[in-house]
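Run Glycosyltransferase family 2 protein through structure prediction, thanks.
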Amino acid sequence: MSESKDFKIDIGELPISGPGDKTALKKSWIPENARETVSAFISEWTPFGLVASYFVFSTCLYMYCSDGMIAIFWFIYMCTNFYIAGATVLEAFMSITPCREARTIVTQAEDRGWCFPTPHDQLLVLDLLIVAYLPNEQDIIMDRALYALEQIDYPRDKIRINILYNTPHTIEPLETELHQLTEKYSHARVIKVPNSTSKADNLNYFFTLDTGSDLIAIYDCDHYPHPNSPRWAVERFIADPEIDIVQGRCVVFNSEDTFLTSMIAVEFDKIYAVSHPGRAAMWGFGLFCGSNGYWRTSLLRELKMDGDMLTEDIDSALRAFSRGSKTVHDLNVTSYELAPTTFPAFWKQRLRWAQGWAQASAKHFKMVYNNVQDPLHPNYNRSFTARFGVLSLLLIREASYYLVTQYTCLVLSFLIVKFPSSGEELWKLVYFQYPVSQWLFVISLVCLIATLWITNQVKSEFVSRKMIIIFSIQYPFYLVLSATIGLYGHARQIVRYSSWNPTARK
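Sure, done. The structure for Glycosyltransferase family 2 protein is below.
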C-alpha cells in the first residue's frame, strides 16, 4: 500500500526565558498524539471534500452553460453510455458459450457417475491456502478450516490445506485450537505469519516455503469452496498445459440477509458468470480476482504479491498477463462467500477496491501502447484485440466514473433551473432532452435488459428472478453510486490515503 505522509508542524527550538535561564529548550506546540489525530482527520476527510466540491462545481457549471454547450455535453454522455451498454451486452453474449460448455462438462461427469478423467495417482499436487486476518475473522476461521479439511473431495496425499493467518495480538484458545488441527488431519498445515500486516505479507511468506506443490489455490477466509472445485480446476490444468491460472466463480450465499446482500448477490452473478468469462472470450485474457483462483506454483512464486498495492490480486493478475500468462475462467470451479450486510461495511470494501483499481490502472496502462509483454519473455506480443481490451478495462472503465457523475450533475442542474411540474416533464427532462437521446436511450435499455436476461439464465441458487428484477429497476442508482465510489477512490489515491479497512465478517 502507498504510504501517506503525516501532517506535521515543525516548530523548531523555542527559547524559553526566565530568571537565570540562559538555555534554549526544544518544545513542540502540539503533542505527538494530537499531530497524528490531525493527520488522520485530514487524510480521512480530504477525499470527501474533493468529491463534494466536484459535484457542487460541476452542477453549478452546467447551470450557467449555454444551450448549445449543454447539447454537446448531453450527446457525449449518451454516446458514452451507449458504448458501455453495448460492450457489456457483447460480453454477456460472449459468455453464453463458456456457460454451455461448463454445463456440458457437468452433465458428462454426472453420466459417468462423477468419474473424472484423470486417475487419482496422476493428479497434480495442490496447496490450498485459506488466508485470514484473525481479529476480523476469528468467528469464522475454525468453521471454514474444518469445512475445507473435511468436505473438499480431493485425494489427501495430493492436497494440503494451509491456514495462513496474522494477528496483532494473541487470541486464545482459538490459536491453540487451530494448531491442534494438524494432529487430527494429516493434510492440514497451520501457519501464523510473523510480522505480517496484510494478506500480501501472508502470501509472500508462504511462497518462500518449499512445499513441493504443482499448484496453489488462494481463498479468502469467508469462502466455502465447492467440494469438487479443486478437482475441476486441476482437470483444466491437466487438459491444457498452457494454462497458468484458473479463476473460478464466486457466489454470494447470504443473499437473503438484507436487501443490500441480495443486490450484491445479483451483481456477483453478473460479474463472475457473465462479465468475466465474456470478457475473456471477447478480448482474449482473463483475470485472477483475489479468491477462488488457482495458480501454477512456479509462476506465483516468481511474481509474488506487491504489498504496496491495495488490490494486490488485480496487480498480480495484470503482471501475469503482461508477460503472456494464460488465465481462464471456469464456471464449475465454484466458491461461496459472504457479502457485507451493512452499508458502512460495503462502502469501506468498495472504496478499497476503487482505490486499488486506480492504482493498478495507472501502473499497468502502458500495456495499451506497449505490445511487447516482458523483456524476459520477448517471444510473445500482445495482440491489438488484447490491447483494446486493456484500454476498455483500465482507461474507459475509470473514465466512466466521470461521465456517469457528469451526466448526474447535468440532470441536477436541469432540476434546479427548470424543475418539472409533472412526472411526464421529469421523464422528458432526464432522458429525452434531444431527439437523438431517444434512440441512444432505447438501445442502451435493450442492452441492459439483454444482459440481465442472460444473467437470469446462469443465476446461482441463492438469486431469485425477483432479485434480478429489483436490481434492474434500481440499476441507474447503482451506476451513480458505483461512479461516486470510483471518484472517491481516485481522490484517496491523490492524497495517498493508505489505511487498510478489512471487510467485516460474521
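Confidence is low (pLDDT under 50) at residues 1-27.
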